[in-house]
Amino acid sequence: MPKRKAYTVREKLELVTRMRNGEAQCKISREMGIPESTLRGWLKDEVKLREFVHTVQDDDGLRRKKARLSRDPTLDTAMLTWFVQERQAGLPISGPIVKAQAAKMNKAINGDESEFVASQGWLWRWQRRHGISQAKVVGEKRSADAEGAARFPPKLVKFMEDNSLCGEQIYNADETGLFFKMLPDRTLAMRNDVRKTEGYKLAKDRTTVLFCVNKTGTHKLKPLCIGKSAKPRCFHHVNMETMPLAYTASGNAWMTAAIFTEWFNKSFVPSVRRHLRERRLEEKALLLLDNCRAHPPADMLRSADGNITVMYMPPNTTSVIQPLDQGIIAAFKRRYRQELVKEMIISDHDVTQFLKAFYLKQMFRVAGRAWEGVTPTTITNCWMEGLGAAFPAITDATGDDNDDTDFLGFSVDEIRLAEGKLRSQLDVDETLDRFLDEWAIIDESCPVTGQLTDEDIINEIPCAVPADAADEEDAETPPLPSPAEVVAALEIGLRWIESRDSGHVKVLQMADFLNTAKAEQLARRKQKKLTDFFNAK
Fold it and tell me: How far is residue 437's CA from residue 378's CA, in Å, rounded to a whole number?
C-alpha cells in the first residue's frame, strides 16, 4: 500500500477554506484522495489549526510562530462562523459589532453566569488568531443593480450597429475627487512608539478632476480640473494651453451642469472630431455617462450636426460597468502618489514644507505625468471588465498590462530617502509600499457634486467665488525673467545637458528652447535713434 501523503497545517487550512466556501467534501475527497472523515476532522479542528500557524511579521523580515489557544473554543468557532457568513453577505462589520455579537453568543452558549467580557483585548486576540484586519469599505458594488447592468450591453451593441460605430468612437467620462496634497490619517507604528498617536495638520486642498477616454485607449482627453478659485495666483504669467490639465472653477470645487455643458461643447466635441479625422473615421461618437446630478439631460448634450451624442447608463450600475470605475481612475491615483513622492524626494524640504509650497501648478505637472503613464492596454482591459459583453473579446499576445508593473519603480536610494523623510516628519515606522497603499484610497469618499442652491440654479454660473480670489493665499507670483536672463539660463542648461548621457533628443529640445528665447530677445530690442549716440551734456 502506498504511503499516504502528510499534509502540512497550511495545506489543511486551504482545504478547510474550500469547504467553508461551499465546496462539497465528497468532491475534495475524490480530488485529493483524502477520506471524508479526515476532512470533517480538519473542519472541526479549524480553530486549533489557525492558532498553530498564526505568525507575526516583524519589521526586520523575521517570522516567529505563536500558538495561543482560545479559552473558549466553542465561542471562538461560533464567532468565526458568524463573521464569515456576514462578510460573504457583504455586510460591513466593525469592532463594536463583533464585541456585541460575542456577548450575545456567549450568553446563548454559557448562560447568564458566565464571566466572559467582550473587551478590546479579547477582540484584538480574536482578530490575530484568525488573521482578520481592518479594511476600508469603498465603492458601491454591493448595492449595484445587477439586472440593469446585464441589460445595458445589448442596448449599447444595438446602438453601435444602428449608427455604425466602432470601439474607437465610444467614450466614457467620469469625475473623481482628489486631495492633491493630503497624507494618510492612519498609519502603522512600532508598539513602543510613545508618539504613534500624535497627528499633524491635514492638507485638505481638494479638486475635482474629470477624465475621459475612448474604448481603445488611443484617445485620452486632457483632464479637466475644477478648483475653487477663478484665477489662482500660481497660474499668473502661465499659458494654460501648455498645461497638461485644463482648469475651471466653482464655489465648492464641484462639477456643475454649466461646467459640464461647456466642457462637452468646447473641449470634448472638438477633440473627438480632431481624433477621428486623424484616424480617418466618420466624425460620429457616443459618450457614456453615469447619472450624476451635475450631468445635464442627454438631449442637451449633442453636437450641432447630431453625430456626437450622449447615452446614460442605468442607475446604480456604474460601479460595475463604468470603465473608468473599473481601475482607470485608480491607476491614475496610484501613479499620482508615486510621482508626488518622487517630487518630495528631490526637494530640499521636509514633508510639511514641501506640501506647503505644492500648489496647483505643480500638481498639474505631477498629474500630467501620472495620466500619461496610464497605458492603452490598461484602459482597454478596464473597458472589457465593465462592458466586455458589448465588445468582442480581444486576445493580447503580450498578456495583461498592469500599471504597477510598467511603472519603472523607485531606486533603492529613492526608497531610503522617502522612508527617511516619512519617519522624521510623521514619527512613524512606515515602508514606502504600505504608505502608498494607504494613500491611494484616501480620497475615495471625496464628493464631486453637491446640492445646488436656488441662486446657483437660477444664475447657472460656473464660478460662485470672486474673480480675484486665490486658492493659495500665501502663494507669491515671481516676476517674469527678462529675455536676457532666460537666454543665459538656457545656455547653462544646454551645456549641462551636453555633458551628460541624456540622448540627442533632450539636447535638440534644449537647443530649440534656446533658439526660441534668442528670437524673442532679438524681437524685443528697440531700434536706437541717432540722438542715442550723443552723450547729454
Answer: 19
Angle (CA) 355-358-360 rounded to 5° is 140
Cα 187 to chain centroid distance, Å, stands at 18
Cell of 164: 455604425
Q: What is the DSSP string of 204-264?
A: --EEEEEEEEETTSS-BPPPEEEES-SS-GGGTT--GGGSSSEEEE-TTS---HHHHHHHI
Average pLDDT over residues 395-407: 42
Greatest CA span in the chain, whole angstroms?
A: 122
**Is residue 158 within a helix (H) or strand (E), and if so which, with residue range?**
helix 146-163
Q: What is the Cα–Cα distance from 212 to 323, expressed in whole angstroms?
A: 10
Within 8 A by CB and 6+ apart from 235, the residues are 247, 360, 361
> CB neighbours of 169 closer than 8 A, spacing ≥ 6?
214, 276, 281, 282, 284, 285, 286
- Give residue-wise pLDDT tens across range 92-150: 788 888 888 888 888 888 888 888 888 888 888 888 887 776 655 445 554 556 787 88
